[in-house]
């Protein structure tokens, strides 16, 4: 990997000894290793027991079973609402509405998205990523993982695949479909579009004569879909809702005052961190990133999140002065950080009162998450707790190695612009880690 742009540091946290280093101060793109900055700051700032709140509120008055006003769903950046299609929580919301004595709503169910500004798509992300499932817009109300499955049907080579529908169903979306059926053996379809836009462009190619299958893309307006689903659930339970669901994108101080009806809480942050780091979930990481910025000032902005994350780690002695922080998940190609800064961050978290929750959030080599393929059936299987990062031309790892004598090492191996496939680069990194471990154990 002589042509690669690398930054490497391995340090014994127990003794302080530097084991190996190579251009440790050099900042390079971290890819999803960037999630360590976000999840570490979230854990230290909010605590492992923190739960994202989503609040049901209403305007007007409740008179003889009739709400003379609107019912609002005020978003708090929870990334887990409806995750993997789990919508049973809506039944509890319906019970809360009925418990408040509401049998008819003369207004509408409105998704309140005002905790964040309208910049749902991080400006540091590539245009080609917009609309894809791994780069959904981030809102104060996130729902269904902010993704949909676009059901397609392929036919003869040279024909255009047919769009059969979406899961979940999105009634007002418009597909401009250019996906061709071809003699290929892989899924080459792409989805593109912008947050709030009803149009999604479908391009690329899929295998011919495959029958019905799915392609994942982002949801243009997850908050509005949530409001629609809640409206349907209310009506299905006998509560009359006079108007159709709507959404509120911007804060207006002239809006009438509201009354709290019910607060829904997410799972504890410690559980959400496991999904974020073990499965490298961009939505979860970016929602935490934006929530932290919203704590700085309202409405939350990408810029506020960037500044908060930088200041948080700088005050803890992490060398982020030359780092470039564009997002919280590592999807922005401009992101850059050094191996030295990452090892310093890992050292801070190793000493933290929240270290147990932190370690539990990281995948384990050869056993779980994105590290399942790292060092299986080797001396390092089960000994590495780390975050991986992979984008085009980049393969990175940063985390801990548990040594047989009880010492704990922190390491960061960042490899960018390496020739060859990512799996081959990972093989070289794996060999390096095994060699260093064997030499110094």
Short note summarizing the structure:
This protein folds into 3 domains: 5-50 and 269-440, Beta-lactamase (3-Layer(aba) Sandwich), CATH 3.40.710.10; 53-115 and 222-264, D-tyrosyl-trna(Tyr) Deacylase, Chain: A (3-Layer(bba) Sandwich); 127-218, no CATH class. It is built from 9 helices and 23 strands.
What does this structure look like?
With 441 residues, the protein is α/β, with parallel strands linked by helices. The protein has three domains: 5-50 and 269-440, Beta-lactamase; 53-115 and 222-264, D-tyrosyl-trna(Tyr) Deacylase, Chain: A (3-Layer(bba) Sandwich), CATH 3.50.80; 127-218, no CATH class. Helix content is 26%, strand content 27%. Strands 2-1-23-22-21 form a five-stranded antiparallel beta sheet, sandwiched between helices. α4 (269-278) packs parallel to α8 (355-361). The longest helix has 19 residues, at 422-440. It is globular. The chain starts with a strand and ends with a helix.
């Amino acid at each position: 990997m002589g042509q690669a742009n690398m930054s490497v540091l391995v340090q014994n946290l127990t003794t302080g000894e530097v084991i190996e280093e190579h251009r440790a101060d050099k900042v390079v793109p971290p890819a999803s290793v960037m999630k360590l900055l976000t999840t570490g700051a979230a854990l230290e700032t909010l605590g492992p027991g923190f739960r994202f709140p989503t609040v049901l509120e209403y305007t007007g008055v409740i008179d003889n079973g009739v709400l003379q006003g609107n019912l609002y769903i005020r978003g708090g950046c929870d990334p887990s609402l409806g995750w993997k299609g789990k919508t049973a929580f809506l039944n509890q919301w319906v019970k809360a509405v009925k418990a408040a004595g509401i049998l008819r709503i003369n207004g509408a169910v409105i998704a309140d998205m005002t905790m964040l500004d309208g910049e749902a798509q991080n400006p540091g992300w590539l245009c080609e990523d917009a609309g894809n499932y791994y780069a959904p817009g981030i809102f104060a109300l996130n729902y269904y993982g902010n993704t949909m499955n676009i059901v397609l049907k392929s036919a003869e080579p040279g024909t255009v695949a047919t769009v059969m529908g979406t899961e979940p169903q999105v009634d007002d979306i418009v597909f401009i479909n250019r996906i061709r059926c071809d003699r290929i053996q892989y899924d080459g379809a792409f989805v593109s579009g912008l947050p709030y836009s009803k149009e999604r462009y479908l391009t690329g190619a899929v295998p011919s004569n495959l029958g019905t299958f799915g392609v994942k893309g982002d949801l243009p307006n997850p908050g509005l879909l949530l409001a629609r689903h809640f409206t349907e659930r209310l009506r299905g339970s006998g509560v009359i809702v006079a108007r159709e669901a709507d959404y509120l994108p911007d804060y207006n101080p002239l809006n009438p005052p509201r009354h709290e009806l019910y607060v829904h809480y997410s799972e504890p942050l410690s559980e959400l961190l496991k999904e974020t780091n073990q499965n490298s979930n961009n939505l979860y990481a970016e929602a935490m990133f934006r929530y932290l910025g919203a704590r700085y000032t309202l409405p939350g902005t990408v810029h506020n999140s960037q500044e908060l994350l930088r200041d948080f780690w700088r005050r803890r002695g992490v060398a982020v002065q030359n780092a470039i922080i564009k997002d919280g998940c590592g999807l922005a190609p401009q992101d850059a950080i050094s191996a030295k800064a990452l090892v310093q961050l890992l050292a801070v978290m190793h000493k933290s009162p929240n270290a147990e929750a932190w370690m539990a959030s990281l995948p384990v080599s050869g056993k779980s998450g994105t590290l399942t393929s790292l060092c299986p059936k080797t001396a390092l299987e089960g000994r590495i707790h780390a975050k991986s990062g992979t984008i085009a031309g980049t393969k990175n790892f940063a985390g801990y190695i548990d040594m047989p004598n009880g010492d704990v090492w922190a390491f960061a191996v960042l490899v960018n612009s390496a020739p060859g496939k990512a799996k081959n680069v990972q093989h070289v990194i794996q060999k390096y880690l095994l060699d260093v471990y064997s030499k110094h154990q």
